[in-house]
Amino acid sequence: MGHDLGHAALALLATTVYYIAFLVFRISARRMEPLRGSRPLRVARLMLTDPVWLGGGLLLFLGLGYEVVAFSAVPLAVAQPIFAVSLVFLVAFAVRFLGERLSAREWASVALFVLATMLIGLSATGEGEPHADATLARTLARPWTMIAVCAPAVIVAALVWLVGDRRAGGRHARKLAGVAYGIGAGACAGLAEAGIRGISIVYQDTGSIRAVMESPYPYLTLGLAAIALGQLQIALQRCRVAIVAVVLTVIGRTYLIVSSTVLFGEQWPRETEPFALRTGGFVLALTALLLFPRYEEPRPAAVPSAAGKGVRAFR
Q1: Strand partners, 295
Q2: Which of 4, 99, 166, 288 stands the most exposed, by the fewest C-beta atoms within 10 Å?
């Protein structure tokens, strides 16, 4: 019991460090020149030469590393609620200390996301764990499956980048909301985590670094993580961190489950109760996405007071 509590506490700490990295990235984004998705090499250069961003990146990978250790020892039914609690803490911090404001519609979406995350966690059965031989055979024999899984995430990320750049200009245009950037970055982040899962499966079964490097998973992780980090940085410069982080995390976890079904042959729960919980979780997540506004509402312009007009009139 104490051992399980220790791993749960480590998981909560790791997730907290992971989200602190988002706040550091936010500080870094506000210091940078305007970032544009149509110029990815420039975005990469600005990120990699900013010591604040590098510090956030270190925190991010520390958090991910501890998550791998902790979540390998706790069931999904425990891990997912930990993510939900951490998301609530992050949103509360953004509202209290960063001055971010969420509409009633956005609060409802966040609540649905948190509930969806917990339902998906409760749906875990622990059956049918994949093995390296079956995983590699599936991936190498049918490489089109990995292409089919990766293509939607990359296309969505590219569209959000380009549309976000186009919408940012123009006299009457409205900025894309954080939900759009969160979807693009989240899908890529979910695939990067699927790559980490593939690395873990291959190494646990073979104990060979060479087998890991000969598999496609390290390259899947690095490539998709780079896209996700670039889009995240652009999003944090333009949008509220609370919205971006919530959508990115939930979409990432959802895409991880979907991609694991295709890449690793993990089965959807067959028993009635787990099946209903997972299906309900996905339906709630989709409902929350549809409920989120697509564009940021313009801030109302300050109306000068009568006294202020009088002062300017006498100047």
Answers
A1: 176
A2: 99
Strand intervals (E) in the chain: none
Name the pTM for this structure: 0.78
**Cα atoms found within 13 Å of the Cα of residue 158, Cβ hemisphere only:** 6
- CA pair distance 85, 117, nearest whole angstrom: 10
The pair of structure tokens assigned to 188 is: 């890529």
Task: State the virtual CA torsion across 190, 121, 21, 98 in degrees, nearest 10.
Answer: 120
- CA-CA distance, 296 to 34, in Å (whole number)? 18
Phi-psi region of 170 (alpha: psi -120 to 50; beta: other; left: phi over 0): left
Q: Judge whether 90 and 242 are in contact, CB under 8 Å.
A: yes
**Residues 212, 197: Cα–Cα separation, whole Å:** 11
Counting as low any pLDDT under 70, the low residues of the chain are 1-4, 7, 68-80, 125-142, 164-177, 294-315
Radius of gyration of the chain (CA): 21
Report the C-alpha gap between 168 and 148 in whole angstroms: 31
d(CA 211, CA 214): 5
Residue pair 241/100 in contact (Cβ under 8 Å)? The answer is yes
Nearest CA to 243 among 283, 293, 306, 281? Answer: 293
Q: What is the spatial distance between Cα 229 and Cα 263, in angstroms, rounded to a whole number?
A: 23
